[in-house]
Amino acid sequence: MDLRPDYNGMEPLHKSRKNKEDKFCGVCGDRALGYNFDAISCESCKAFFRRNAPKGLDYFKCPYEEKCKMDVSNRRFCKRCRLRKCFEIGMRKEYILTDEEKMRKRQRIDDNRRMRDLEKSMAQSGVVSPNLGGMSPAKLRSLEPEEEAAINEIVRAYRASLEIPIESKVPRDNANFAALVNIAEVSVRRVVDMAKKLKAFKALSQTDQIGLLKGGSIELLILRSVISFDKENNYFLDPYDKDSLALTQDQFKEGIEKSDMGMPGMNIPGGPTGLFDDHMKFVKSLAIDLKADETMLILLLMLSLFSPDRPNVTDKVYISAEQDKYALLLQRYLESRYPYQVARSVFPRLLMKLTDIRNLNEEHSQVLLKLNPEGLQPLMKEVMDLHLKKKGTDTDTDSDASSIEASAVVWLQY
């Protein structure tokens, strides 16, 4: 018969609580949670040591002949004696991380969180994924030097394009759909600037360059909106732009709702709210569900830009080869970030977003082509082809040649 008292599981709890309460800071005597820099210390002394240990004892002077007593009430009075006590109890300054080490640690934490979130997302959506917990970073595939160089080229080009200034500061409050179009003008200019920095794009003829930019402009804008979406604050803003230029979800929704979707020819399920919901669903499916980082989204931007089925492009073989190259780079990048099984699951889901964006492009186009061009920026008129729509449906060679020449003037000045 077991005669031991029945504590109903409380004894371990008491012991655990007692052990935690028994820890006291070796510097000031305050309650401590555990070891910091190889010695038991409180949170206050931990922070003090991190800030001041790199400076060394000689940096500080004691006004009281170095006989200061350290306790909770007077620990702030003398930094030298407090730091000396930190060293005396065994706190080690070599355990303090440098800024570079902090960045690497933060990156590892972000990577682990992203992998956990990704596994959870795939499980919820029915995608079979392996147990990631026991997988080592050593199993990740490193990028080849030429692959890394190709990715760095497009990332640098994208980031450099963010320096294009916003010339027309359209108010965000009470904006209608035409105002939203003008707000997007800087995004189009930044896409053009990025493309013109790429060797593969510059190798194309002027006609093909215009065909890719003009034919893919709306899809490229939608993809850029994913990159600029701040999921913490729920607004759209490029990194170098002022906070006052942010476009909130509510402002975006209000602007779409002010478009005349009741006009003849409109066929968008749910009307204005449906278009907004579809756009935000696409944005969040990439930014939140798939945890796509900046590089993944820029690679998707390249896949969309180099689409050989755009109207008026001639060198379809070259453009198709470039698209295949960026698809392979996306796959290799995923394999360098995630275990192979996860990368293999995520890759096709990212490619499917290019199909989703075509459908979303159709919805946006229905609204854009009904807008009155008066008051729109010249580049945005070119994006929507409104100046041609107003002229009729001439398709003869002279008209095509003149339209291409007019497009070149508008597109390539940026």
TrEMBL record:
InterPro entries: NHR-like_dom_sf, Nucl_hrmn_rcpt_lig-bd, Nuclear_hormone_rcpt_NR1, Nuclear_hrmn_rcpt, ThyrH_rcpt, Znf_hrmn_rcpt, Znf_NHR/GATA. Keywords: DNA-binding, Metal-binding, Nucleus, Receptor, Transcription, Transcription regulation, Zinc, Zinc-finger. Signal peptide: none annotated. Residues 146-390 form the NR LBD domain. It comes from the Eukaryota. Residues 22-98 form the Nuclear receptor domain. It is found in: Nucleus. Its main location: nucleus. This is NR1H3-like protein. It comes from Mya arenaria (Soft-shell clam). The lineage of its organism: Eukaryota, Metazoa, Spiralia, Lophotrochozoa, Mollusca.
